[in-house]
Amino acid sequence: MTESKNALATQCIHAGQEPEPITGAVMPPVFFSSTYIQESPGKHKGYEYSRTHNPTRTALQDSLAALEGAKHGFAFSSGCGAMSTLLMCLSQGDHVVAGDDLYGGTRRLMAQVFSRFGIETTFVDLSDVSNLEPALQKNTKFVWVETPTNPMLKLSDIKGLAKITHAHGAALVVDNTFATPYLQRPIELGADLVVHSTTKYLGGHSDVIGGAVVTNNDQWAEQLAYLTNAVGAVPGPMDCFLVLRGIKTLAARMEAHCLNARKIVDFLVEHSKVEKVIFPGLKEHPQYELCKQQMAHPGGMISFVIKGGLEAAKRFNESTQLFRCAESLGGVESLIGLPAVMTHASVPLKVRENLGIVDGLIRLSIGIEDPIDLLKDLGQAFER
Ligand code: P1T
Question: Range(s) for CATH 3.90.1150.10 in the chain?
Answer without folding.
Answer: 251-383
